[in-house]
């Protein structure tokens, strides 16, 4: 009993992410990975542990965790719960264990900065500002063990608590320099944004660029900051539309998801996961919310609705539970709407909150697979031969967390220019033919594809004409609009100096004297 009272006097002081942790008075730190930390805490008394926290990412989370442990030398045991599919995909728990078992070496992190690289098959980093001697002292002083379920984690904590109290391994090591990345933000719209790409990879790079360029920095409830856009609509047009359907992964793969984990993640949206064999500490999945949470299979319901009325606008699925979700770990994905237009089946998904850097590509792939399943099922059961229309995601809070800012900048630097070079110059608004006739500039507006003339503009001043076009065509592509301004200014100059110049669209002005 004397030993127990001595342990209860200990106090853990977090240097980083303090509001994300549960605090006790013992000598044991419990890392729960993707398992909800509450599900471990409820089995323990406060004097049995020092701290309980989750670890999602090896590339960012371990750096914070190690710094916190260095500041709390009374922690002498580390219990790592590596229990879920998400843990196996992220590799964070295994990488942490590898840090204690195998050590680290000088290397470069995923942003190209020199760091301490953990000796593991999984990429994990610690800032070079943390001294190597301190890291090795930590490794030698803390006993680290990995377990695969909550029961074993609790048993191991109890086992360690039966041992004699250990003195702190040294003095707290605090206030280690931390690199801060400050975004360079340009003016932009506060609400309502649009991005389009043929593939999820293309759209993702554009999303990251748009947020990092014009997003507003705001505090989060998770002891940090994020850069955010409000109501970002992302449209993916071609992904997973082939036969057989496949997802595009760039080479080398710069997406935060790989094909090995993809099928598991898709199953969490398409299928009724965690109902037949629920796992303690694992939150709902989107698939469970769609298939059984409300006592109805909403996916089957939507399919039946469209088969009965292919033009229905009521093919809706909801994931928000008004009886629970205002207080308890609410889903980020809230609403799905499926619509058939011109023999194409589109799917629109609304997220109240969306981590666009780490989560959106997986979200989009899972939703695209669900969209394909709905489309194929309708085709198999009816005479309709529906094509895959676009996937649209509406992210009401589209954000990038501050610990991903450096990685996001790296993606933009390496990929954005290439993405822009591959852009499709076809504007859904249509095309414009510009020519001079008599003393006027004539602009004919034609539909995309068929080339039907749907509008005609006449005038002598470029500004007057492009203002009329902008008013009539508010959805005009930005680059197309800039092109029209350039061409109309050339046409105005040629019109005012017809004795010197000949105007032809998409060509430099011709000097009449040089021509002759």
Walk me through the topology:
Elements lengths: L1 H6 L14 E2 L4 E4 L6 H4 L9 E3 L7 H10 L6 E5 L3 H6 L1 H11 L1 E5 L5 E5 L6 E3 L4 H10 L1 E5 L2 H12 L29 E7 L2 H15 L1 E4 L5 E12 L22 H12 L15 H6 L6 H11 L7 E3 L14 E9 L2 E8 L2 E2 L4 H22 L5 E15 L3 H17 L9 E7 L2 E7 L6 E7 L2 H11 L5 H19 L4 E2 L7 E2 H4 L1
Parallel strand pairs: 2-3, 2-4, 4-8, 9-11, 14-16, 15-16
Antiparallel strand pairs: 1-3, 5-6, 6-7, 10-11, 11-16, 12-13, 13-14, 17-18, 18-19, 20-21
* CA-atom Rg in angstroms: 29 Å
Instruction: Give the helix level as a range of percent.
Output: 25-40%
Overall geometry = globular
CATH architecture of the largest domain: 2-Layer Sandwich
State the secondary-structure class: alpha/beta
Q: Low-confidence runs (pLDDT<50, min 5 residues)?
A: 1-7
How many individual domains?
3
Tally of DSSP helical segments:
16
Strand content: 15-25%
Secondary structure: number of strands:
21
CATH domain topology of the largest domain: Thymidylate Synthase, Chain A
User: Could you tell me the mean pLDDT?
Assistant: 91
> What would you give as the CATH superfamily of the largest domain?
Thymidylate synthase/dCMP hydroxymethylase domain
CATH class of the largest domain: Alpha Beta
End-to-end gap:
107 Å
Describe the biggest sheet? 8 strands, mixed
Structural write-up:
This protein is 34% helix and 23% strand. With 516 residues, it is an alpha/beta fold. The chain has three domains: 160 residues, no CATH class; 231 residues, Thymidylate synthase/dCMP hydroxymethylase domain (Thymidylate Synthase, Chain A); 85 residues. 36% of the residues are buried. Helix 9 packs across helix 12, helix 11 packs across helix 12 and helix 14 runs antiparallel to helix 15. The protein has 16 helices and 21 strands. The N terminus is likely disordered.
